[in-house]
Amino acid sequence: MTGRVGPHVRIILMIEILNPSQLNQARRTGALVAEILQTLKDRSAVGTNLLEIDRWTKEMIIAAGAQSCYVDYAPSFGNGPFGHFICTGVNDAVLHGRPHDYVLADGDLLTLDLAVALGGVASDAAISFVVGASRPAESLAMIDATERALAAGIAAARPGKRVGDISHAVGKSLREAGYQVNTQFGGHGIGSTMHQDPHIPNDGRRRHGLKLRPGLLLAIEPWVMADTAELKMDDDGWTLRSVTGCRTAHSEHTIAITPRGAEILTLAGRAS
């Protein structure tokens, strides 16, 4: 789930530097998030209801002895507690999609965004994929663009660099792919809580912002909309959609800054 910076609202909690024991726990939490997302991707098919996905998520979180970062989350940019265990965005819904009674159809572009806490450390990741046998070229291109931008941002996340270096790398990659960039919602620090400083917009200036140091955990999350950078909110007070109704995509990993560079904690198939 993205953090937000705007003229009236800003999430400011803290910046944490994890010790080696906490970092080991972050690896376990990240592996759990990746495992749940992969399982949900494998189960999500034509005919799957978004509420089923939410139920499966709840069951897996409880079975792992973890805690949802979403169900009771009530920030100022949302309308009361989120009330669900995962964000599910379909087609034009790109951020904070609240699960509801919707059955997936062939060719739907589904985004799953999940954050959980385990052993006192949180982790956050998102994936986008097409459901069924159809493979709309526009959807696949958007997914690929967010994944490449995510890789660029991670490559820029090295000790001694700054948050602006990550933002610049993400924005450059998205713009080169032909997409407009919205900086209202973006990545964020993470640790004992899901949302912490620093905010990591999806575009920015190199050599600006917080200096990166080992032990810092960051959630980097590029997202795009096919033909706009403007959002609108559903009546549920949470789900954010493209203002034109165009399709959207979103990719996210939680990383740890180490002396050697960025370590991806939410990579599917990673041993815990």
User: Mean pLDDT, rounded to whole units?
Assistant: 94
What number of domains? 1
CATH superfamily: Creatinase/methionine aminopeptidase superfamily
Q: What is the CATH topology descriptor?
A: Creatine Amidinohydrolase
Task: Give the low-pLDDT segments.
Answer: 6-13
Topology, number of strands:
15
Brief descriptors of the model:
4 helices; 6-stranded antiparallel sheet; alpha+beta; single chain; Creatine Amidinohydrolase; 272 residues
Task: Provide a short characterization of the protein structure.
This protein has 272 residues and is an alpha+beta fold.
Structure description:
It is a single chain. The chain has helices at residues 20-43, 50-63, 137-156, 163-176, and strands at 3-4, 67-68, 87-90, 93-95, 109-118, 121-130, 185-189, 196-200, 217-220, 223-225, 231-233, 240-242, 248-250, 253-258, 261-264. The chain is α+β, with helices and mostly antiparallel strands and 272 residues long. The chain has a single domain (3-264), classed as Creatinase/methionine aminopeptidase superfamily (Creatine Amidinohydrolase, Alpha-Beta Complex), CATH 3.90.230. The chain is globular, with a radius of gyration of 17 Å.
